[in-house]
Amino acid sequence: LLRPPHRASFLRELRESVRYRPAKDRYKIFIIDEAHQITSEAFNALLKTLEEPPEWAVFILCTTEAHKIPTTIASRCQQFNFRSVEFAELVERMKWICSQEGIEAEAEALAVIAQAGEGSVRDSLSALDQAIASCGTKLSGAAVRDLLGLFSLNALGAVTDALAASDSAKMLDLVSELERNGHQLQHYVRELARYFRNLLVARIRSVPTRLIAAPAPEQESLAATAKNFSEDDLTRYLQITLDVYQEEGIF
């Protein structure tokens, strides 16, 4: 298993290793993680081997950004696309791991970690490891949120409360509080965009739905909030938030 950085010199050594048959097994399997981070020089060093691989060599290139793989490489590979893992499945998997490891984890804590993983088992388990290292054998939702820099539904809901009341002063007070507590505003806007997206989905679709990565009670709360706004309003808020997030230097 090869992980970044993928330097040309390192992959040249790999190419030399490929030349030799495995001592006892049928195949040598090389898994290159984050393959989109391979430099052009490193790809060039690997290209000849990928063009004419030995019969015993199998290369697996893993990436979340397939469009960054050069055409000369991609054309010599079979491409398999894997879907994101369902939110409920991630939570259940982490719940099982915690039970095996003697970790007491609140349902909210596991939900927060699954949301941070965004459908990736690896990223979710990495966040779980981080939470255990920081919080010990008892994981609470509030502690995990603080650790991962995620905001609660109440913290995000303060924005929709201000919007529903057309209260500009309350919105400015919210920004002031975020700055006073040392929160990164761009990260908050990113979370806010996700929040408006979920509100829009909850406004259109009945909940619970797999389109929202959140437990059923949280989805019900989102649906209740979404009823205060039209689809057009939520679409506009989402677009504004995305524009603000993508605007360079605004923060």
Sequence-ordered SSE layout with sheet pairings:
Elements: H1 8-18, E1 28-32, H2 40-51, E2 57-61, H3 71-74, H4 87-101, E3 104-105, H5 107-117, H6 121-135, E4 138-139, H7 141-148, H8 153-164, H9 168-180, H10 185-204, H11 216-226, H12 231-246
Parallel strand pairs: 1-2, 3-4
Helix pairs in contact: 1-2, 4-5, 5-6, 5-7, 6-7, 8-9, 10-11, 10-12
List the keywords.
single chain; 251 residues; mainly alpha; two-stranded parallel ribbon; 4 strands
Task: Explain this structure.
There is one protein chain. The protein starts with 7 loop residues before the first helix and ends in a 5-residue tail after the last helix. It is mostly helical and 251 residues long. The protein has a two-stranded parallel ribbon with strand order 1-2. Helix 2 links the parallel strand 1 (28-32) and strand 2 (57-61). It contains 12 helices and 4 strands, in the order αβαβααβααβαααααα. It is elongated, with a radius of gyration of 23 Å.
